[in-house]
Amino acid sequence: MARRKKIYEGKAKILYEGPEPGTLVQYFKDDATAFNAEKHDVIEGKGVLNNRLSEFFMSGLNAIGVPTHFIKRINMREQLIRQVEIIPLEVVVRNTAAGSMSKRLGIEEGTPLPRPIVEFYYKDDGLGDPLVTEEHIIAFGWASQQDLDDMVALALRVNDFLSGVMMAVGIKLVDFKIEIGRIWDGDYMRLVVADEISPDSCRLWDIKTGAHLDKDVFRRDLGSLTDAYTEVAKRLGVLPTNVTHPTKPTLIN
Ligand code: 5GP
C-alpha cells in the first residue's frame, strides 16, 4: 500500500502531500496543547469538531469573497487545502479585552474595546510567539508594508464575518487568531486565510451566561472541552441537535 508523504506535523494538525500539485491534505488531531505545549492532553473528538467548524467558517468566508486556503472537506478529520507560503506571523483581532492583552496591560477581562484591535505575534515557539510591531515585521523582512495593509484588511473582514455569524447564535466573538499565507499565480501573489478557524483559535463567550465555549475551557480547567465545542457546532447547525454522546459527534453530510 502506498504511504502518503507527511509534509509537516504541528501540535494540533498534520499536513500531507495532496492529490495534485499545489494542494495539501490537512488532518485534525485530537491533541490539545496550551502555554507553548507545557499543558497537553488528547481530547477524543476535538479533531472531528474542528475539521467541521473550520470548514464551516472557511467556506463561509470563501462564499463572501474573502479568500482562504480551504478547498473541500474530505472526511471526518481531513480537508483538502491549497498549499500556501505561511507568513510567520499570528494575526490576532480583539473586540473585547481578554487573555494576554488583559494581563499585559492590566485591563479587566470583558472590557469592550472602542474598536477592533489588530496585533501581530512572531511565530516562534522557542521565543513563545512574542508580540511584534509593524516596524519589527518590516525591518526583519517577515512581510512588506503592502502585505501588512492587506493582512489588516483581511483580518478585519474575517472579524466582521465571524462576529456576525457568532452573534446570530448567541455567542460573543471576543478575539481570534488567524494565519495568512501567500499563493503565487505566475508573477502575481495574493494573500489568503490559512491554517484553521475553530474554537481552538477564538475566544467565544455565551452572550447570556458568559460561559467560555473555546480553548480557555482547557487552558483554565473549566470543564469539558468537547461539550463546549459541540455546543458551538450545534448552534451553528454543523451538528444535529440530538447528539447524546459529546465525545462521539455524529456528522451530517
Ligand atoms: P492571547 O494573546 O490572549 O493569548 O490570544 C488571543 C487569541 O488568539 C485567542 O483567541 C487565542 O485562542 C488565539 N491564539 C493566540 N495564540 C494562539 C496559538 O498559538 N494557537 C492558537 N490555536 N490560538 C492562539
UniProtKB/TrEMBL annotation:
CDD domains in the cross-refs: SAICAR_synt_PurC
Gene3D superfamilies associated with the record: ATP-grasp fold, B domain, Phosphorylase Kinase, domain 1
Query: Would the keyword DNA repair be found if you checked this record's keyword annotation?
Result: no
| Any one cellular-component term (Gene Ontology) | cytosol
* Enzyme superclass (EC): ligase
User: InterPro entries, from UniProt?
Assistant: SAICAR_synt/ADE2_N, SAICAR_synt_PurC, SAICAR_synth, SAICAR_synthetase, SAICAR_synthetase_CS
Residue ranges annotated for the SAICAR synthetase/ADE2 N-terminal domain, each copy included: 6-235
Domain of life the protein comes from: Bacteria
Q: What is its EC number?
A: 6.3.2.6
Gene Ontology biological-process entries: 'de novo' IMP biosynthetic process; cobalamin biosynthetic process
Which family, according to UniProt?
A: Belongs to the SAICAR synthetase family.
- This protein is called Phosphoribosylaminoimidazole-succinocarboxamide synthase
Question: What organism does this protein naturally occur in?
Answer: Rhodovulum euryhalinum
From the broadest rank down, the organism's phylogenetic lineage runs: Bacteria, Pseudomonadati, Pseudomonadota, Alphaproteobacteria, Rhodobacterales
Q: Which gene encodes it?
A: purC
